[in-house]
Amino acid sequence: GRAVRPRRPQLLCAARRRAPVHKIAGRCVQRTATAVGAAVLLALYERLGEAHAMLNHKDEAQAAFTHMLEAAHSAGDRPAESRALCQLSIIQGWLNRLDQARSTGNSALHIAQKAGDSQVLALAHFNLGHLDVITGNLSPARRHLEQAVQLARSANAYNVLARSLQNQAYLATFTSSYAEAEQFAQAAVEAAKSGRNALAVSGACFALGHAQVELGHYAQARRTLHAGVDYAEESGESHYLAKLLNTLGFLHQELGDAESALHWDKQALAACRRAGVDRNWEAECYTLLNLASDELLAGRIQTASAYRQEGGGVLESVQRRAARGINPSHLGG
User: Fold this and answer.
1) Distance between CA atoms of 200 and 3, rounded to whole angstroms?
2) In which element (H, E) is residue 251 found?
3) SS3 state of residue 255
4) In angstroms, rounded to a whole number, what is the distance separating the alpha carbons of residues 162 and 184?
5) Cα angle 138, 140, 146; round to 5
6) How far is CA 76 from the centre of its chain?
7) Is residue 162 within 8 Å of residue 200, measured between CB atoms?
8) Is 225 a residue whose pLDDT tops 80?
């Protein structure tokens, strides 16, 4: 197994301008931290953290959300405190600090329950559901994600809705229920477009394209995956870009087109190693193994062996970093 262009609507107008937001917001925070009200400061830290997360700057995102947490606690803003904890938990999960992410996520849910805010509760349940997905706790994952979807729909929290549906698609994929996964992922794409969030759009396109490849809907999968790549490249979103490109490689290998698969997998490897963003180790590992498969199909045995050896080295590095194994579909986003 492998790891893993419709017409562009104008939903990315805001996201397209978002790439420099981390610099703009950072300067605003530095200049106005002592002069603005708590609500403005919280909004700046939250936007700064979101921008860094979209750009796959994990340490910078963590720092911004930590500042947001401190400001929310000082202001007595419980919903903002819970949102900051949720975002910190998500970043901790990306960094494979899973025990810490779980503890932080539980604190976020506890505060959200006291605050009684549907949007914050939806985010807290999504985060814990996502943690359960990536750690293989599928029954509690379903319960958390079902609650997140219900709460997000009632509150019109489209970004949380999209990411919750995306994770429900992953759960369906794990049981080879690809038609169900396609339905969840298609709903995630629509919700993400309504929420105008590049990270959610790219992730939903990844989940949908993966399900469509598994179903043999290759023309649809090609359109979906190219759309996701377009969104990611226009907005600067970096967390899902390598996965989208890698899945394009998967698609072309399924079609028996080894050279096109090789092209897309090389693009995925370049995205994993792009300067200025944190490396996506899991995607890099599987991309190297996919490149080995591509070269093997093309009859280039020595090159395939070199890619496989390099991928094995990255796998060892990832396993040292994490207390868990890697999901075979690397659906950890």
Assistant:
1) 20
2) helix 241-254
3) coil
4) 9
5) 100
6) 30
7) yes
8) yes
Q: What is the mean pLDDT of residues 242-257?
A: 94
Mean pLDDT across the chain, nearest whole number?
86
The residue type at 133: V
Q: What is the pLDDT of residue 5?
A: 35
Contacts 24+ apart (CB under 8 A), 218-226: 218/251, 218/254, 218/255, 221/247, 221/251, 222/248, 222/251, 223/5, 223/6, 224/6, 224/189, 225/251, 226/5, 226/6
How far is Cα 233 from Cα 224, in angstroms, rounded to an integer?
Answer: 14
User: Is the confidence at residue 251, as pLDDT, over 90?
Assistant: yes
Q: How far apart are CA 57 and CA 79, in angstroms?
A: 25
332 pLDDT higher than 50: no
Instruction: Phi first, then psi: give them for residue 156, nearest 5 degrees.
Output: 55, 40
pLDDT above 90 for 319: no
Token duo for residue 60:
């910078």
Establish how many alpha carbons lie within 13 A of residue 186's alpha carbon, considering only the half-sphere containing its beta carbon: 11
237: pLDDT strictly greater than 90: no
Q: Which two tokens stand for residue 251?
A: 């698609």
b/e code 268-282 from CB counts within 10 Å (16+ = b)? bbebbeeeebbebbb
Closest CA to 172 of 221, 224, 225, 215: 215
Task: Please check whether residue 93 is in contact with residue 53, taking contact to mean a CB–CB distance below 8 angstroms.
Answer: no
Q: Quickly list DSSP for 91-156.
A: HHHHTT-HHHHHHHHHHHHHHHHHHT-HHHHHHHHHHHHHHHHHHT-HHHHHHHHHHHHHHHHHHT
Distances (CA, A) of 197 to 28, 163, 238: 22, 10, 13
Cα–Cα distance, 313 to 309 (Å, whole number):
6
Q: In three state form, how does the secondary structure of 195-206 look?
A: HCCHHHHHHHHH
**How much is the pLDDT for 8?**
34
How far CA 68 is from CA of 64, 79, 88, in Å, comes to 6, 12, 10
Cα separations in angstroms, 305 against 90, 217, 268, 273: 36, 31, 19, 20
Task: Report the SS3 class of residue 25.
Answer: helix
